[in-house]
Amino acid sequence: QVQLVESGGGLVQAGGSLRLSCAASGIAIRFSAMGWYRQTPGKRRESVATITSDGRTNYSDSVKGRFTISRDDAKNTVYLQMNDLKFEDTGVYSCTMRSGAYWGQGTQVTVSS
Questions:
Q1: Quick one: pLDDT at residue 41?
Q2: What is the mean pLDDT of residues 97-104?
Q3: Average predicted confidence (pLDDT) for the chain
Q4: Which end of the chain has less Cβ packing within 10 Å, N or C?
Q5: Stretch 31-44: mean pLDDT, rounded?
Q6: How many beta carbons lie within 10 A of that of residue 88, not counting itself?
Q7: Model pLDDT, residue 1
Q8: pLDDT at res. 75
Q9: Residue 98 and residue 3: Cα distance in Å, rounded?
Q10: CA 111 – CA 102 distance, rounded (Å)
Q11: Burial call 26-64: b when 16+ CB within 10 Å, e when fewer
Q12: In sequence order, what are the residues at sequence separation of 6 or more whose Cβ sits closer than 8 angstroms to the Cβ of residue 103?
């Protein structure tokens, strides 16, 4: 049974920070690309950040310079450090493995202005 479980979401004020975690079980992430997506009402789900198995990263233009994706394969966990949060960052953040082969249930991030 493969599970991706996100945590770390919450309510923060604009300019604040959150760190999201995605803990995988039932499968090792070591050799897989991982990513974070977010879904906001009325908008298509968008890729926020990705990280390859060897640590190379990509970010959407809207979060570049503010968010950092990282991985700890020993803990089978991927992180998303979110700094200088904006109201527009509000949404449900979901972790994915292998470009959509597996998804977590998501964690809500709400940024107040």
A1: 82
A2: 92
A3: 96
A4: N
A5: 94
A6: 13
A7: 92
A8: 98
A9: 13
A10: 27
A11: ebebeebbbbbbbeeeeeeeebbbbbeeeeeeebeeebe
A12: 4, 94, 95, 96, 97
CB atoms within 10 A of CB 17: 12
What's the per-residue H, E or C state across the chain? CCEEEEECCEEEECCCCEEEEEEEECCCCCCCCEEEEEECCCCCCEEEEEECCCCCEEECCCCCCCEEEEEECCCCEEEEEECCCCHHHCEEEEEEECCCCEECCCEEEEEEC
Q: Could you give the percent of the chain with pLDDT greater than 90?
A: 93
Pull the structure tokens for residue 45.
């789900």
Q: Are 85 and 16 in contact (CB under 8 A)?
A: yes
Q: Are 39 and 101 in contact (CB under 8 A)?
A: no
Mean pLDDT over 65-69 rounds to 98
β-pairing, 10-13 with 107-112? parallel
Contact of 86 with 112, CB cutoff 8 Å: no
Token digits of residue 47? 């890729």
